[in-house]
Amino acid sequence: MSSDFGKDKQDFHIGNGRCRYCAKDAPSVVDYKDVNTLQKFMSPQGKLFDRKRLGNCAKHQRAISRAVKRARFLALLRYSGR
Ligand SMILES: [Zn+2]
Known about the structure:
CATH 4.10.640.10, binds zinc ion
């Protein structure tokens, strides 16, 4: 019901739409200690963006989701924003 809902969808866009972890020179393993990278996959509220929006393949989106959960458990990331 908030008019702000979905607004951030418009300005968040990762160009090429390909899975960054499937790229040739990219690390094929998602590092849960790499908090800066993981945060790029998350909204300011601490929610993981959906796969279509990130352009990741299913395999790596799962890996990212696991990495985020692990990082949260280790208090490297927040469970929710603020
Ligand atoms: Zn991939």
